[in-house]
Design goal:
With about 475 residues, the protein is α/β, with parallel strands linked by helices. It is built from 20 helices and eleven strands. It has helices spanning about 5-20, 25-30, 50-55, 65-75, 85-95, 100-105, 115-120, 150-160, 170-175, 190-200, 220-230, 250-265, 285-290, 295-310, 330-340, 375-390, 410-425, 430-450, 455, 460-470, and strands at about 30-35, 40, 50, 130-135, 140, 210, 240-245, 270-280, 290, 315-320, 355-360.
Length: about 475
């Protein structure tokens, strides 16, 4: 494989010739939350509301909103839009590249550089990387999630109200006040209607289509997409299809999903197929964090899907939080076992299975930084553990598939190293105590509402939990 760093330097210079804030992702990428009518160009800017009046004239306003066009104009005028401050902080702090460069360099962005530069900011542009959530239908109530992504959360909050934290965690009244409440599944959704009006124009030009949720398989629109891909007379043969799923759905629905995944792979109608699934630690502690999960069933289904297919890749999205720490090492060991079992020259990623450890930022009462400093050694040991299960050759030197990483890549290890570095950053003691009080109040109410037992599930954190209670 080739080292692209030199090309990245050149391409960053090319972007900067247009403007210091020019980013192709503002045109080529979109995440659309159809369940509550919000959109953003990538995952860094805060989602903004899609005005229904714009959709009536232009269904592509699911992406091409007037708001987003103003940000494009600013970029072409040499400005840095405020909503993209994540990249500006990265660029100003000294690292070689921010996501502005990486996303613009992607194969779904780079080829459109000249076209975007010439067309300007007024015209509509069909994105090439599209992520869509059709609804908030979900059978899980993950502790860090909320009503916009989970119908189960809505049910609980209607029965018990917001959690007793200082920020009224998951307060339905606030969601309704700011227009973030999702549409009920039984009522018409104009944003979903606009998507299907746009779909015939959007589908043929996409590079990557990622369906998320909620739990996508609980939405009829998900199956409508899959059936269209399998039956259309003009399939997009270059499409990379990604599906988010908790893999904790009922057996009948899971079997239907597995059958469709095999059909998609064998049909030759897509280029790549990836499953994104989530787990945040190991065993019963994972079940506690992601309420509704049966970790043993999840393990079996990950193994089964990789065994039933030849090219499918699975990415584990781990929302690393305070409750992840005690047993994360066990998860690392299991992932390594699956990597070595299922690594194959036919799978399109470096390995068949990847572990993406992204640290939780919100809700703040569950972030890893609330833990006492003595947990730093455990975090460091996880990073060292992954480093010992790593093949040291850089990717661009690999020529034969047998040399592919059987263990963890530098990217996977770097994500955990980033968590250690973040944990080391100082935190105001008063703020930390406030978060610890919220932590105790959250999980005390959690146990009462859901019939769980924090101290029994997390004996390693029982003393810390009691100390938080004394605050």
């Amino acid at each position: 494989m080739i080292d692209h760093r030199g090309e990245l330097y050149d391409f960053r210079d090319k972007l900067n010739e247009v403007g210091c804030g020019f980013c192709l992702a503002k045109w080529t990428q979109v995440t659309i939350h159809l369940q509550n009518g919000e959109t953003h160009s990538c995952h860094h800017p805060v989602p903004h509301k899609i005005p229904l009046i714009e959709l009536r004239r232009n269904p592509s306003a699911l992406h091409n909103t007037k708001h987003k066009k103003r940000q494009r104009r600013a970029m072409l005028n040499g400005e840095r839009p405020d909503e993209c401050d994540y990249c500006w902080r990265v660029e100003d702090s000294g690292p070689e590249f921010s996501d502005r460069t990486y996303k613009s360099f992607e194969p779904w962005s780079q080829p459109y550089f000249d076209k975007i530069k010439e067309m300007g900011w007024r015209q509509n542009f069909n994105p090439k990387y599209v992520e869509v959530a059709f609804s908030n239908a979900c059978n899980f109530k993950c502790s860090y999630c909320g009503p916009q992504y989970s119908s189960k959360w809505v049910e609980e909050l209607k029965e018990y109200g917001a959690y007793p934290t200082t920020d009224n965690f998951n307060n339905l009244e606030w969601f309704e006040e700011v227009g973030k409440m999702p549409f009920k599944h039984s009522e018409p959704n104009p944003y979903v209607d606009a998507f299907w009006e746009w779909w015939p124009e959007l589908y043929p030009e996409m590079d990557t289509f990622r369906i998320t949720g909620g739990e996508p398989s609980m939405s009829p629109d998900f199956w409508k997409v899959v059936d269209h891909i399998l039956t259309t007379d003009n399939p997009n043969m270059n499409l990379k299809l990604s599906i988010n799923t908790n893999l904790g759905i009922p057996d009948k629905l899971y079997e239907r999903l597995k059958t469709k995944l095999v059909e998609l792979e064998e049909s030759g109608r897509i280029k790549e197929l990836t499953i994104f699934t989530s787990v945040d630690t190991y065993g019963k502690q994972a079940d506690y964090i992601r309420n509704g999960l049966d970790f043993d069933v999840w393990q079996e289904r990950v193994d089964e899907l990789l065994s039933s297919t030849k090219k499918l890749s699975i990415a584990i999205m781990s929302t690393f939080n305070a409750l992840s720490v005690p047993r994360y090492a066990d998860l690392v060991d299991w992932v390594f076992e699956m990597k070595t079992k299922h690594n194959s020259p036919e799978r399109h990623w470096v390995t068949s299975l990847t572990l993406d450890s992204a640290y939780l930022r919100y809700p703040t009462h569950q972030i890893v930084k609330i833990l006492p400093k003595e947990w730093r050694d455990t975090l460091e040991s996880i990073a060292v553990q992954m480093e010992t299960l790593h093949t040291v050759r850089p990717l661009w030197e690999i020529e034969d598939w047998k040399d592919h990483y059987l263990g963890f890549t530098q990217i996977e290890i770097g994500k955990v190293r980033r968590i250690v570095d973040w944990f080391d950053e100082p935190m105001d003691a008063e703020e930390q105590n406030k978060l610890r009080r919220n932590f105790f109040n959250m999980f005390k109410a959690h146990d009462k509402r859901r019939g769980t037992d924090f101290k029994e599930t997390f004996p390693e954190l029982a003393e810390f939990y009691d100390e938080c209670g004394k605050l």
